[in-house]
Amino acid sequence: MTATKRMKRALVSVYHKEGLDELLMKLHDEGVRFVSTGGTQAFIESLGLPCDAVEDLTGYPSILGGRVKTLHPKVFGGILARRENDTDKAQLVEYDIPEIDLVIVDLYPFEETAASGAGEQDIIEKIDIGGISLIRAAAKNYKDVAIVASKTQYLPLMHILEEKGAETSLEDRRWFAKEAFAVSSGYDTAIFRYFDGREDSAFRAAVNNPMHLRYGENPHQKAQFFGAFEEMFDQIHGKEISYNNLLDIDAAVSLIDEFDELTFAILKHNNACGIASRGSVLEAWKDALAGDPVSAFGGILATNVAINREVAEEINKIFFEVIIAPDYDTDALDVLMQKKNRIILIRKEYGGSPTQYRSLLNGVLVQEKDLSIQAERELEAMTVKSPDAREVEDLLFANKLVKHSKSNAITLVKNRQLCASGVGQTSRVDALKQAIEKAHSFGFDLSGAVMASDAFFPFPDCVEIAGKAGITAIIQPGGSVNDKLSTDYCNEHGLAMVKTGVRHFKH
Questions:
Q1: How far apart are CA 457 and CA 454, in angstroms?
Q2: SS3 state at 154
Q3: Where would I find the beta strands (DSSP E) of 82-216?
Q4: What is the torsion angle, in degrees rounded to the nearest 10, for the CA atoms of residue 150, residue 156, residue 159 and residue 161?
Q5: Residue 70: its H or E element
Q6: Which residues are 357's β-sheet partners?
Q7: Could you give the CA distance from residue 149 to residue 16 in angstroms, rounded to a whole number?
Q8: Which of 127, 321, 368, 483 has the highest count of CB atoms within 10 angstroms of its CB?
């Protein structure tokens, strides 16, 4: 078998024609003949290039409103015929079927139509039949046929034409076949997910153009990100984003999205080490930093308001990896861009996915995102004493934080400022002790502070420790068979405790 093949005839049938003209002109210059249908044929001829009609080849017109145009043995026989197979070659001669050496085709915009909110009939009509069949046929016979299944592959083909003329190697054709099956599998995945809705009856995912990361969680691990990062952020400065940066960015935006009021957060290893809601962005930054100025080193900063120069100058005093904001004043960027590696992101409006995925063992875990967050009306008093208005505000603030902290987790809050948290501990008691010790080390007075726990208290030890530290109000899911033990202690010592009925584990 000869590995190098010359392209003599090309079937061209595309929906998107942007960038096609230059490629067609080059193919024509190399002596390649064209066969096409409808609008694509008219486009080719508008360039002054000769083109045979598929209808003349098959002897049938386009029928059923354009649903059937290329589905014919004289088309698919020319694509699928094995050039080194004597029987195939004889049948081509017998039935007067010309060989087709190159297929340039794309698919109806199904995903775009479905996302546009179009009616179901319009969406169904964008399920491509002929195009997907041509892609699969040409890719299957890659030993003899080259397939260009997307306008993103025009440039690679142009490079081949410029380097080799109308000759393709087996390696070239196999690469195009691989890319073609990526297109077809992604297309079918989108159609399946449309019909499946939210049933999750099977796991299907298809994402193109991965972001190649510097390395994975550690330098010896390779990593890629499959997703449209640019749909959520504009990176306007800084080095390439890393695997760990992405984990922290995800945690940061998930946390900051919980707050409608002006809020500034600092995260480290996916956990908030400082966060505060204030009347100005400068105050919010200073009080967030006060929560843990040590851990803030090398952290991720996120806020839900624009950054001005005054704030930028304060922020610039510490080293941090990433900053995320909806906008930046021009003079603020002059300050922030002084560090060449600092990653500066502008947050865009983006709905996000309601589903989370996680690979483990030999499969994938799929779950709904924890989008539950409790309002004041949902709090249920567990004690004789009820929290006052300021304490309720802090309890709700603390509950949002504990939801986004690694379990076991405790958060201590006072005046809408994180005083300290204990996260990722095997014991809730240890998490609380860690938080209290940390708060004291940074000079916080916990008298009048509140505490949030991501899960219930099976024993009263945590409320006892909290009460002795000066904490006056507690929020927790409730639901332990021993809730009464914690409630009795709170009643005896004048603490207020409310339950949400919702656990917020995070691993």
A1: 10
A2: helix
A3: 102-105, 146-148, 167-168, 211-212
A4: -50
A5: none
A6: 366
A7: 11
A8: 321
Measured between alpha carbons, how far is 406 from 267 in angstroms, rounded to an integer? 12
- The answer to whether 35 and 52 have CB atoms below 8 angstroms apart is yes
Annotated catalytic residue, options 17, 26, 239, 269: 269
Q: Count the Cβ atoms, other than its own, within 10 Å of residue 332.
A: 22
Q: Which of 140, 143, 339, 433 is catalytic?
A: 140
135: nearest Cα among 125, 145, 122: 145
Residue 225 · residue 213 · CB < 8 Å? yes
Contact 277/297 with Cβ under 8 angstroms? no
What b/e string do you get for 12-50 counting C-beta neighbours within 10 Å, with b at 16 or more? Answer: bbbeeeeebeebbebbbeeebbbbbbeebbebbeeeebe
Q: What are phi and psi of 74, to 5 degrees?
A: -70, -20
H or E element: which one contains 390? Answer: helix 389-403
Helix (H) or strand (E) run with residue 476 in it: strand 473-476
Q: Do 60 and 72 form a contact (C-beta atoms < 8 A)?
A: yes
> What mean pLDDT comes out for the span 73-84?
91
452 pairs with which residues across the strands? Answer: 411, 475
Task: Give the confidence band of 1 by pLDDT, cuts at 50, 70, 90.
Answer: very low
Which residues on neighbouring strands pair with residue 215, listed in sequence order? Answer: none
Q: In this predicted model, what pLDDT tens digit does every residue of 428-483 receive, in sequence order? A: 999 999 999 999 999 999 999 999 999 999 999 999 999 999 999 999 999 899 99
Confidence (pLDDT) at 2: 53
Q: CA-to-CA distance for 122 and 136, rounded, in angstroms?
A: 24
Q: Is 140 a catalytic residue?
A: yes
SS3 451: strand
| pLDDT, tens digit (0-9, with 9 covering 90-100), for 251-309 | 999 999 999 999 999 999 999 999 999 999 999 999 999 999 999 999 999 999 999 99
User: Taking the complete model, does pTM exceed 0.70, yes or no?
Assistant: yes
Beta carbons of 475 and 504 less than 8 angstroms apart: no
- Judge whether 474 and 450 are in contact, CB under 8 Å: yes
